[in-house]
Amino acid sequence: MIKFLDLQKQYLSIKEEIDTSIQNIINTSSFIGGEKLTLFEKNFASFQQADYCVGVANGTDALEIAIEALNLPKDSEIIVPANSFIASSEAVTRSGFKVLFCDCEEDSYTISEESIKAVITDKTKAIIAVHLYGHPCDMDMLLDIAKQYKLKIIEDCAQAHGAEYKGRRVGAIGDIGTFSFYPGKNLGAYGDGGAIVTNDENLAIKTRMIANHGRVEKYNHVFEGRNSRLDTLQASILDVKLKHLDKWTNHRIKIADYYLENLKGVTEIILPKRSKDVRQVYHLFVIRLENRDELKAYLSENGIQTGIHYPIALPKLKAYSYLNMASSDFKANKLDTSLLSIPIGEHIPIESAEQVVSAIKLFFND
Residue 339's beta-bridge partner residues? Predict the structure, then answer.
């Protein structure tokens, strides 16, 4: 079996470091806050080339807190790409704002310039730039649009830990960036977790206060906030794994390079585009084909696990039926039936990638 994800194998490769770190936290009973959390926040900020990092409970909270910290006017609209996980749009509406869906690029699947400009109104105040599948958005384009229309940019980096745009790591290129440490992410905790990064000191202070009941010191509440903290056990685990992340990412890129080189002759599938001047971290390696479900079933029969991300474009979800966008001509509304994620990760040796390629070629040659 070639697994789509193998967290146990990853754990066993760093077992001694992880076990020691967890035991140290238990021994000190420092479960909330403390030095280990501060250390991880410092190290993750440095890793992402950001001035500040605030650990929070999960990636969705990170988005909601980032939106709240921007202090947008009432009735503001926030643009979200139609091809993403629901957290990207859910955070907008649950924060009391209106979501405006825009389309994705057909080759990189990231947010579309043309579509953004088509939906902007005088109430639009922000863009959520989703670095989908680990491929950075065109940040120069987004920064130009933000300047022209006076918009804020929130970078959704849930799938893009360590990704780079023109030598800069994503997250603090826009106004504020958010990360998820869900276990299956490139940098995953052993439970839920998230973080916010920024180069804006005021935003860093505001987000930390929001996440900690509106306070900077115990019992001195400046405003009503919420309880959203990255616990120290998860922070200590993440800090161990952070030391290995670049090595793991380089292996993902190696596997992606193999797929790109050895599947380019299979005319029935469309391979993902790697834009110039980016470091694509390949949280997912997504191919596109007409008979997606048939290939998925064939690979499963041959011991190869795959995934679908995402089977229903956001505008087509029942949750957004009130927007009446299910029949729009967005590319995302059509691509959701043809996208297939094949195995990639530090757990996959090159020999497994060879088996995946061979199986795909056999499927089309039968």
Answer: 288
Query: Of the candidates 222, 287, 299, which has an alpha carbon nearest to the alpha carbon of residue 260?
Result: 287
75: phi > 0 → left, psi -120 to 50 → alpha, else beta; which? left
Q: Are strands 164-165 and 168-169 parallel, antiparallel or unpaired?
A: antiparallel
DSSP summary character for residue 109: -
What phi and psi, each to the nearest 5 degrees, are found at residue 308?
-125, 120
Which single residue is written with the structure tokens 């947008």?
A: 72
Question: Long-range contacts for 323-329 (Cβ within 8 Å, ≥24 apart)?
Answer: 323/99, 323/101, 325/82, 325/101
361/340 Cα distance (integer angstroms): 15
Q: What is the pLDDT of residues 182-209, one digit of tens each?
A: 999 999 999 999 999 999 999 999 999 9
Give the three-class secondary structure for 279: strand
Distance CA 126, CA 178 (A): 14
pTM above 0.85, yes or no: yes
Using alpha carbons, list the distances in angstroms from residue 129 to 63, 88, 154, 324: 11, 9, 6, 23
Quote the CA–CA distance of 349 and 20 in Å, as a whole number.
Answer: 27
Residue-wise over 265-293: b if at least 16 C-beta within 10 A, else e?
Answer: ebeebbbbebeeebbbbbbbbbbbbeebe
Whole-number Å distance between alpha carbons of 24 and 19: 9
